[in-house]
Structures are given as structure tokens and as C-alpha cells.
Amino acid sequence: MDLKSFFTAHWEYLAVKTACEMNIFDFIEQGSFSLTSLAAKGKFDENFLHFLLQALHHSNFICYENEIKLTENGRILTENHPKSLKYACILWAEEHLAAWQNLSFSLKIGKPYFEMQGEKDYFGYIENNDNEFQIYHKAMYEYARDDYEKLPQLIDFSIHKAIIDVGGGLGALIEGIAKSYPQIKCYLFDKEEVVDLAEDSIYEKLSGDFFYKLPKTADALILSRVIHDWNDENALLILKNCYDALPANGKLYLIENNIDNKDFRFALLNLNMKLMTSGRERKLSEYQDLAQRQGFVFEKSVALNDLQIVLIFYKK
Ligand SMILES: C[S@@+](CC[C@H](N)C(=O)[O-])C[C@H]1O[C@@H](n2cnc3c(N)ncnc32)[C@H](O)[C@@H]1O
Question: What residues contact 132, with CB distance under 8 A and at least 6 apart?
């Protein structure tokens, strides 16, 4: 490893993230720009813009010659690209960066960054910060659209009459299932302010708090990337509410990162989880243990992609 380059690697990410945030990739996509006309379009300081464009050219996000053009990397960071990662790019700065910059305090005090800020948890923090709230959920949507693309083909959901995606964010996963299985009644369940942000689609929206109770309207529930946000006590409460909401033989699809035999690869992800939430990545046996303690019976697991696995349980 080239240590001297490693120390300043974040400069490159922050240059790209700033270009996303200031809509520079979107502007370039919309028209033919010189340095001066792009500076006028975004009301940017021309001198600073020149140096930022040079950095973006060097990192292969744009081509900065007489005319400024996007490369494929730059195109993916525009708002309307079908596989856009614009908000996923912005997410890892802002409060995530603040949490990492305060790792030394968490190390001493043993608490996630947001608890030290007097917030209940990360989700409580973003609820009070509209900009961070929007960026987080749009970023999760972009990841979900990609990660769950193959899920409807991988698992036969046709055995179900109704499915609720619990903590489903802006609905990328449940939309995929609803499109593939039009006969199934599909629901998105999340906090009220989150389902309000989700665009109207072919699924129905339900709002509430998964720590309180879940609607008894489905014979299958999905919990994707939810349990890893919480400590065991809270995870057990969510699983109990899932169990209570399902009919006998109803199914629970738990989607999480598979860290078995790869703990080392997940070390940074786990550290991030510790900083942001009270949760952590768990081994498959730990997820099985949590679900079984609430009465679920483990049926099987199916690999979703390189990173994620679907654990399927049913209610006795
Ligand atoms: C890490 S995101 C996962 C989103 C989506 N399932 C995915 O896989 O991309 C966790 C979700 O849990 C939701 N959530 C957090 N606390 C909740 C609560 N008390 N009741 C309902 N949903 C909640 C958040 O709003 C967020 O959408």
C-alpha cells in the first residue's frame, strides 16, 4: 500500500461528492459547457471550479478539455440515470463523516455518535434534519434498486396472497415483487414521514412503528437490512411484532449481509454500524437464534448476491 496516497484518499471522494451535491454532473449532462458558462450556470467561483474540474478529470468522472463532458462514471452520478448512485455518493459525507471524525469519543465513551449528540438514535437524528433525511432514504433506494433486482426471480413468492416489506424505505424492493407478481397484494410499511416521501406506485402504503405493532394483513413479511441496525433487545422486539402479525405458517424473509467466514472483510462495515447505530452485522447462526427465540422455525437460506443472504422462517 502506498501510505502517503492512502492518507489523502478521502480528497478524491469529497471532490466527487461535492460535484454530486452541487449538481455539477447534472448540469454537464444537460448541455454543452465551457468553464465560464458552467461557472455562470451554477453560480460558482470560476477559479475554484477550474481546480475541481481538473480533479474530476483526473479521477475519470469527466473529460475536461475545451468542452466539458461526462464519462460513464459521471453519468451514473446524474439524478435521472436509471441506475443513479447520486445520493449514495452524497450519503457517506455529511453526518457519516462527522461520526467517523468523532470515533475517538465513541472509543472512550462506548456510545454511537448520535447518542452522544443527545439524539435517541440515528433515525431520530435524520427525522429532525430534513436534508439528511432525504439524502439517506434516496441513497437507500438507490442501493436497494440494485441489490434486490434479482430477488423476485430467486424466490418463489407466488405462494403468498399478501406481503409487507417492513422498514421498506422508499419501496424499491416491494415494487420489484409487485411488478413480478401482480396477483399478490403488496404493502410498504415504514414510518409515516418515510412512506410519505415514497412515490406512489403499484403497492399500497402503510405507516407505523415496528416497535409498537405491525398490521395483520399479510401471510409474508420481509425485513431487509433492518435487524442489523439494532441491538439484540430491539431486534427481538421487532421479531416479536413480526411473529404476532403473521398467521400460522406465515413466512418471514430476513435479508442481511452474510459475514460468515468473512468477518475481516466486514470489519469496517461493522465499525460504521457501531458508530451510526447500536446495531451490528451478525453471523447467520445469530440471526437464526434471535428469530427462533421469538418462535420462528428456520426453513432455509438463499444467497441473494455476493454480500447478502435471505433467511426464510415460518411461524409454527
Ligand atoms: C437500513 S434501512 C433499510 C431500508 C430497506 N429495507 C432496504 O433494505 O434498503 C432501515 C429502515 O427502517 C426504517 N425504520 C427505522 N425505525 C423504524 C420504526 N420504528 N418503525 C418502522 N420503520 C422504521 C427506516 O425508516 C428505514 O427505512
Answer: 94, 95, 125, 126
CATH number of 3-83: 1.10.10.10
Does domain 137-315 correspond to CATH entry 3.40.50.150? yes
91 Cβ contact list (under 8 Å, min separation 6): 135, 136, 139
Using one digit for the tens of pLDDT, what is the confidence trace for 94-110?
889 999 999 999 999 99
Q: Say yes or no: CB of residue 275 within 6 Å of ligand 1.
A: no
List the grid coordinates of 67.
Answer: 468542452
Domain with CATH 3.40.50.150 in the chain: 137-315
Is the pLDDT reported for residue 302 higher than 70?
yes
Decide if 252 contacts 314 (C-beta within 8 A): yes
Global confidence as pTM: 0.94
Active site residue 50: no
Q: Where along the chain do the CATH 1.10.10.10 domains lie?
A: 3-83
CA of 225 to the centre of ligand 1 (A): 8
pLDDT digits 0-9 by tens, 3-36 = 999 999 999 999 999 999 999 999 999 988 999 9
